[in-house]
Amino acid sequence: MAEFTMELNDEQKEVRDWLHGFAADVIRPAAAEWDEREETPWPVIQEAAKVGIYSLDFYAQQYFDSTGLGIPMAMEELFWGDAGIALSIVGTGLAAVGVLANGTEEQIGTWIPQMYGDVNDVKVAAFCSSEPDAGSDVASMRTRAVYDQAKDEWVLNGTKTWATNGGIANVHVVVAVVDPELGSKGHASFIVPPNTPGLSQGQKFKKHGIRASHTAEVVLEDVRVPGSCLLGGKEKLDERLARARERARTGGERVKNAAMATFEASRPAVGAMAVGTARAAYEVALQYATTREQFGRPIIDNQGVAFQLADMRTSIDAARLLVWRASWMAVNGKPFTAAEGSMSKLFASETAKKVTAQAIQILGGNGYTREYPVERMHRDAAIYTIFEGTSEIQRLVIARTLAGMPIR
Ligand SMILES: Cc1cc2nc3c(=O)[nH]c(=O)nc-3n(C[C@H](O)[C@H](O)[C@H](O)COP(=O)(O)OP(=O)(O)OC[C@H]3O[C@@H](n4cnc5c(N)ncnc54)[C@H](O)[C@@H]3O)c2cc1C
C-alpha cells in the first residue's frame, strides 16, 4: 500500500507539467470557440490523441497509479484548460472504466480500443445509465434487456438520456434491467457495438455550460447484441441474480452495495475536475485584482476583494485535499466508512460553483462578459453539483453512511 502523500513524485510532476502545457497551449485557446459552437471539438481530441493524452494507455497508467494521485492530477490540469473540451477528452474514459470494472479480459481487449479508435480516426464512447424517469433514483430504470436463448442474443429496448457522447459514440455501454423484481440488483451492463441497428440519437441538449461536450438521448429499439456483449458474461450474471433472489426470498443479510463502492471510488475524479475549473477562475481573478485599478490603487488593496481571494484559495486547497485523500483510499482499497468519496465530490463541486461566482464579482462588468473566461467557467461549474450524483444525493449518501443506514 502506498503511504498517503501530498507531494507529487518527480514522474508525476513531469506528467502534470506536460498536461498543463497541453491545457494551456491547446485546450484553453480553443475553449471560447467550441463553447460557442456547442459541438464536439474533434480536432482537439485528435491533437490529444497525437500526443498520447487521448488513449487507453495514458488513462490506465494514471488509473493504476498506487499513490492515487494520477487521475486527480490529470483531471485538474485538463479541466483547468476548459471543462467542456476536457470532458470531450475524458468522457470516453467513463465508458472504458465501466468495461474495466465489469468486463472479462476478452471484452476489455476487444472493446476498449474501439472506444478510442486510432490517431488518424479518433472515436469516442458513451456510458448510458440515466433515463428520463431514472436520474437520482437509478432503481426505477426501465430500459429492458431480454435474453433470446435460441440466438444467444440480448434484445434492448428503452430510452436513455443525458448520455455524454450519446449517439456519436463508436461504442455505447448501456445499463439495462434484466430482472425487474430485483430493483437495482437486477441491472446489467451491455456493450452496443458500432453501427448496431436500432440504436439512434434522440434529442441533443443545448446546455448552460460544458457546451463543447455532446449530451444527448439514446433511443434503443429492438437493439440486438450478441451474448458476448453482456459485461462479465452470462454465468456471472446468473450467479449474481440467484444470490440476489435468495436474499430477497429469505430477507438474508444485506451485502455490501458494490455499485455504491464504485461510486465512492469514481466521485473523487469529478471532484478533481471541479478543482481544475475553480483554480482556473481563481487565477484569472487574482491576476485581475492585482492589475485593475480603482480609486488610484489595485482593487486587491481592498480587504473586500483580498479576503474573497483568500477564501477562494483556501476552499480550493481544502477541496483538493479531500479529493486526493479519497483517491488514495480508492486505489489502496480503504473502506469508505464516512463516504469520503462523496464528501470530496460534494465539497469540490460546491467550491467550484462558489469560486467561479466570486471570480465574476471580482472582475466586475468584465466578469459578466464573454470577453473574459470566468463567465464560461461559472456556467461550466454548475454541472459538477449535478452529474455523478447531485449534491443532495452526496449529502444523503454521507449522512446514511455515518448513520449506518442502507443506501439503495
Ligand atoms: C451534462 C450532463 C452530462 C451527463 N452525462 C451522463 C452520462 O454520460 N451518463 C449518464 O448515465 N448520465 C449522465 N448524466 C445524468 C446525471 O447523472 C443526472 O442528471 C443526475 O444523476 C441527476 O438526475 P436527474 O437529472 O434526473 O435529476 P433528479 O434525480 O430528477 O433530481 C432533481 C432534483 O431533486 C433532487 N433530489 C432527487 N432525489 C432526492 C432525494 N432523495 N433527496 C434530496 N433531493 C433529491 C436532486 O438533488 C435534484 O436537485 C449527465 C447529466 C448532465 C446534465
From TrEMBL:
Oxidoreductase recorded as keyword: yes
Q: Where is the Acyl-CoA dehydrogenase/oxidase C-terminal domain?
A: 258-402
Provide the alphabetized UniProt keywords.
FAD, Flavoprotein, Oxidoreductase
List cofactor names only: FAD
The Acyl-CoA oxidase/dehydrogenase middle domain covers which part of the protein?
126-223
Q: Which residues cross the membrane?
A: none
What SUPFAM superfamilies would the database entry show? Acyl-CoA dehydrogenase C-terminal domain-like (SSF47203), Acyl-CoA dehydrogenase NM domain-like (SSF56645)
Query: Per the database record, which ranges form the Acyl-CoA dehydrogenase/oxidase N-terminal domain?
Result: 9-115
PANTHER family xref list:
ACYL-COA DEHYDROGENASE, ISOVALERYL-COA DEHYDROGENASE, MITOCHONDRIAL-RELATED
The family classification in the record reads: Belongs to the acyl-CoA dehydrogenase family.
Protein name, per record: Acyl-CoA dehydrogenase family protein
Write down the species: Streptomyces siamensis
